[in-house]
Amino acid sequence: MTRHFHRWAAIFSCLLLAGMGVWLWPKRVLGQENEDDKLKRGDILISFRPSPFSDLSEVTGVILFNAPLAIVWKVLTNYDDYARFLPDISQSKVERKEGAVVWQRVEVHNLWPLPDFHYLLKITNRPEAGEIGWQMLEGNLKNLYGRWKLEPFAANPNQTKAMYTLLQDPGGFFGDLTQNFSTRSLVLERLDAFHAEIQLEKTRQDGQPERVIRPNWRKAIFWWEELEPPRFRAENKPPPPEPAPAKPKPPALP
């Protein structure tokens, strides 16, 4: 009898502690934190959806840029400048413009075993809708397309909520899962770089020094990705201390 009593007492204690844990659990773990709260904290939200044109998935990253839509649009449509701040792009050149349509030639440097990519994109800008769409016309990938969707952030019109969607299918022997997560890493890396460039453009327009704050998405990526890119290591480190003044040399002995 005593043994059964102790057993039930232990079960009741476990259930009580579990119930208290759920009641005391942080709201964000229970899913009560909404998307806007995560974006304001600096998160990049990643999702996958099936592509109607490929066996791979479309990868979408949602980010909050700390700048009005006009500044964000200026940076995103400065296609000739992509090679300067996007780490994977080695060359980017606009070959032709006709109204809202742009033809962009791109060279992408990859690490082994992937070959370098080269392709021609047809880009359609829709500033009235805050949308940019592109698709590959020619190149050495099996399929490539994507789009931007921009809108003023509801909580602060001086910030911009951006959705970046990419489908990149190089073909070849890489599995679907491997390539989907490779595209995920690329979306995160590019959004990180766009975020920094938009902050710098905002600083230039404001005429005031402003610290570049990068999103904190890297806490959620895989162990083989670099934890902190070189561009941010250089920007976030404190300046080196000034060298101490040289001590005067003692006079020479006669």
Give the topology, please:
Layout (H helix, E strand, L loop, with lengths): L1 H23 L10 H7 L3 E6 L6 E9 L3 H8 L5 H4 L3 E10 L2 E8 L8 E10 L4 E9 L3 E11 L2 E14 L6 H31 L23 H7 L18
Antiparallel strand pairs: 1-2, 2-8, 3-4, 4-5, 5-6, 6-7, 7-8
Describe this structure in words.
About 15% of the residues have low confidence. The termini are far apart. The chain is 31% helix and 30% strand. α3 crosses α5. It has a domain of 177 residues: START domain (Alpha-D-Glucose-1,6-Bisphosphate, Chain A, domain 4, 2-Layer Sandwich), CATH 3.30.530.20. β3 and β4 form a beta hairpin. The protein contains six helices and eight strands; from the N terminus they run ααββααββββββαα. Strands 1-2-8-7-6-5-4-3 form an eight-stranded antiparallel β-sheet. With 254 residues, the chain is α+β, with helices and mostly antiparallel strands.
